[in-house]
Amino acid sequence: xxxxxxxxxxxxxxxxxxxxxxxxxxxxxxxxxxxxxxxxxxxxxxxxxxxxxxxxxxxxxxxxxxxxxxxxxxxxxxxxxxxxxxxxxxxxxxxxxxxxxxxxxxxxxxxxxxxx
Length: 116
Known about the structure:
- The protein has 116 residues and is mainly beta.
- The chain is 0% helix and 59% strand.
């Protein structure tokens, strides 16, 4: 069984920072892509950022320049450093991994709330 354990969410004032982490464990194939998604109330879940095993990253336009995704392959962990947070960043953040066989695994989600 593959488990993803997320941490780092919380309440922060606008302009503040948070770092999310997601650690994968269990029996799995090599992890190809690791990513973070978010879902605000009443909205669809959207991709915030992802990173390939080779370090190629992509970002949602609205977070470019503020968020940074990085991973530690030795620890099967992905991070999302979020700076200059805005109230519109408020959402539940989920991590997702895609393993070599093409299977997807999701974390349980962590709440990020940015107050104005």
